[in-house]
Design a protein that fits this description.
The protein has 2 domains: 2-165, no CATH class; 219-364, Histidine kinase-like ATPase, C-terminal domain (Heat Shock Protein 90, 2-Layer Sandwich). The strands form 2 sheets. A 5-stranded mixed sheet has the order 2-4-5-7-6, covered by helices on one side. A 4-stranded antiparallel sheet has the order 1-3-8-9. The longest helix is centred in the middle third of the chain and has 57 residues, at 119-175. The chain contains 10 helices and 9 strands. Helix 2 (46-72) runs antiparallel to helix 3 (79-110), helix 5 packs across helix 7 and helix 6 (195-216) packs antiparallel against helix 7 (223-240). Helix content is 62%, strand content 11%. It is an alpha+beta fold and 376 residues long. This is Signal transduction histidine kinase internal region domain-containing protein. Keywords: Membrane, Transmembrane, Transmembrane helix. InterPro entries: Sig_transdc_His_kin_internal.
């Protein structure tokens, strides 16, 4: 709506302002040359039409000059420099356009042969239109500064919205809401049947979230710590689904202690797998976690998707890809092989066993890491 109004206003300005400008210029010229009394005989005179025509040419030249120079000065970061260069350029455009138009008028239409014959008229015209050009510049820059302010406000709103969205997404990832809802539902059921089991279940749940919160502060966690948290999550989900989830872990202890991952990711992946696949006593969900080539963490699970899939796994996979892209060029792979679905995550090799306490410890991903450091 506002854009439509702005376009219409621009058209009206181009059509009607030169008439007003030419009329004012005509009356000022009569006053400057002490000819105001001529208006008693007739308001409509040929000079009036000439002033309006000159004003149309001047207005077109100034608008074009303002637009052209405005694009060129956009590279300048200082707003005062932009105003100075723009005003000087538009003034020169106005002077050149008025000088050219009046020269053509007096040389070819009036028949003057020397510049001295219309010097006074030239100076008066130039003065009047320079004054109008300065008024135009004030209006142009007023509109431009308002537009820049509005653009700055919109950009700040976008940044604020993006920040809030990011914080909400991080909160949802930290909270792992699907796991929280399912375990709370189980906890409520246990509270009615067996208070001791409910207390034990609540302690397991609290331990998982305590580890999640603590790990979230770290850039990396050891694979063995991540596996321990996964075991607790699998136990919670297995109790919630009547033993419908089981997991096996084939990871050598010496390898798991030297490999690290970004925190929380493995837990979110296991929960997403459980949400998208049937996991019941009749159709159990089997999960296997292994290490491949001492550099890849392989998560395989039986593929038995629900009829109404929540599609949690594709969302988590997208998040995993974005996260790992910050650290390595090794891609996150997902492969469907028969009734099994395999996901391969790059793991990072720790070159210093005291990496948790040593800030100078190096973490690399072989020769493909974009963050690989060289020892000095």
């Amino acid at each position: 709506m506002l854009q439509h109004f702005g376009k219409k206003s621009s058209v009206y300005y181009k059509l009607f302002y030169p008439i007003l400008s030419g009329s004012i210029t005509y009356f000022l010229l009569l006053m400057a040359f002490n000819r105001i009394g001529e208006l008693e005989e007739s308001y409509f005179r040929a000079e009036w039409v000439v002033c309006i025509i000159i004003s149309y040419f001047w207005n077109f030249s100034v608008l074009w000059g303002a637009s052209f120079i405005g694009k060129k000065i956009a590279i300048l970061s200082n707003i005062y420099e932009q105003i100075s260069y723009h005003s000087l350029g538009v003034l020169l455009t106005s002077i050149l356009s008025i000088g050219t138009i009046l020269s053509v008028y007096f040389y070819y239409l009036i028949g003057y042969t020397r510049f001295e014959n219309f010097t006074t008229e030239m100076y008066v015209f130039q003065g009047l239109f320079i004054f109008q050009t300065l008024l135009f510049e004030c209006a142009w820059w007023g509109n431009r500064l308002i537009a820049l302010k509005n653009k700055s406000i919109r950009e700040e709103e976008k940044k604020r919205t993006a920040y809030i969205s990011k914080e909400m997404r991080l909160f949802a990832e930290d909270a792992n809401l699907p796991l929280l809802y399912e375990t709370l539902e189980t906890l409520i059921g246990l509270a009615y049947k067996d208070a001791d089991k409910a207390e034990e279940y609540a302690e397991k749940l609290a331990k998982v979230y305590r580890n999640t919160i603590n790990n979230r502060k770290e850039e990396f966690v050891a694979v063995e710590d991540a596996i321990q948290n996964v075991k607790s999550v699998v136990e919670l989900l297995s109790d919630a689904r009547s033993g419908g989830i089981s997991a096996t872990y084939k990871i050598p202890s010496d390898v798991s202690s030297s490999l690290v991952l970004p925190p929380v990711l493995l837990t979110r992946l296991i929960v997403a797998i459980a949400n998208d696949n049937i996991a019941s006593a009749l159709q159990p969900l089997e999960i296997s976690i292994t290490i491949e080539e001492d550099a890849l963490l392989v998560v395989a699970h039986s593929f038995n998707p629900k009829l109404d899939r929540p599609k949690a796994l594709p969302e988590v996979m997208h998040s995993l890809e974005e996260t790992f892209r910050l650290y390595t060029k090794i891609p996150v792979l997902s492969i469907k092989k028969g009734k099994e679905y395999i996901i391969k995550l790059p793991a990072f090799q720790v070159e210093n066993e005291t990496w948790k306490s040593d800030k100078k410890a190096e973490i690399t991903t072989q020769d493909q890491s974009i963050f690989k450091r060289t020892t000095s």
